[in-house]
UniProtKB/TrEMBL annotation:
This is Glycosyltransferase family 2 protein. Keywords: Cell membrane, Glycosyltransferase, Lipopolysaccharide biosynthesis, Membrane, Transferase, Transmembrane, Transmembrane helix. One of its GO terms (cellular component) is plasma membrane. Residues 5-166 form the Glycosyltransferase 2-like domain. GO terms for molecular function: undecaprenyl-phosphate 4-deoxy-4-formamido-L-arabinose transferase activity. It comes from Pseudoxanthomonas mexicana. CDD domains: DPM_DPG-synthase_like.
């Protein structure tokens, strides 16, 4: 039985995705039963061909292809919906997340209680440009003040979460950046785990600071509204005292 599914959204990552998949295999094979679900979001380079060739070397690899470009959040959700395991680990397709940190997230899960459904990577030593680090620092401060999610870094691509809890969350574009707040809104606990961060090996970032900021403001307002308009209702079954 598959115990962990690694979901990797990819868009134009021909130079990064092969080494990344091989690293996942290196760190997980023999340690835990797993599968890797790569979701190609209509790449315009030969990323799909690279993944197709890689399937011959990596039997754990599965490749899904969007029929139209739909964005990173949709790609993640597609991978989660098709995953074989009740627990999901995500990685960005650019290779900046280190698969060696996945066991660290699994170890944190072992130490946590059953109400903790999300273990979010926290990039303590980012390898991005100075302007990107500055923009991210301010975005995190504004988000924490508004959402009070007690999470220092929601933009980190490496996360570990329960599949059922994720699929129960409200879906919208860019939701992957607000998973801690959304999980907490649903009544679950979240934990931030320090992880490493690496420079991008090849290709270029799919986001600009201005574009990210403009979308982020709208999303912040929406997530804030969701939190204010929701509440968690405990449920027990008559005659058993059990919570369904």
């Amino acid at each position: 039985m598959t115990a962990l599914s690694i979901v990797i959204p990819v868009f134009n990552e021909r130079g990064n995705i092969g080494p990344l998949v091989q690293e996942v295999v290196q760190h997980l094979r023999g340690r835990i039963p797993f599968d890797i679900v790569c979701v190609d979001d209509q790449s315009q380079d030969d990323t799909r061909d690279v993944l197709t060739a890689l399937k011959a070397e990596v039997p754990e690899l599965r490749v899904l292809v969007h029929q139209r470009r739909s964005g990173q959040s949709t790609a993640i959700r597609t991978g989660v919906k098709h995953a074989l395991s009740p627990w999901i680990a995500t990685l960005d397709g650019d290779g900046q997340n280190d698969p060696a940190d996945i066991p660290k997230l699994l170890a944190a899960r072992e130490q946590a209680d059953a109400q903790t459904k999300l273990f979010a990577g926290w990039r303590v030593d980012r390898k991005d440009t100075a302007s990107k680090r500055w923009a991210s620092r301010w975005a995190n401060r504004i988000r924490q003040r508004l959402l009070r999610d007690d999470t220092p870094d929601t933009g980190c691509g490496i996360k570990l979460f329960e599949r059922a809890a994720f699929l129960d969350l409200p879906y919208f574009d860019h939701m992957h950046r607000y998973l801690p707040a959304l999980m907490q809104r649903a009544g679950w606990k979240t934990v931030s785990v320090p992880v490493s961060h690496r420079p991008r090996g090849s290709g270029q970032s799919k986001y600009t600071n201005l574009g990210r900021a403009l979308v982020g403001i709208r999303d912040l307002m929406g997530v804030s509204w969701l939190i204010q308009r929701s509440h968690v209702t405990p449920v027990s079954e008559i005659g058993t005292g059990r919570k369904p």
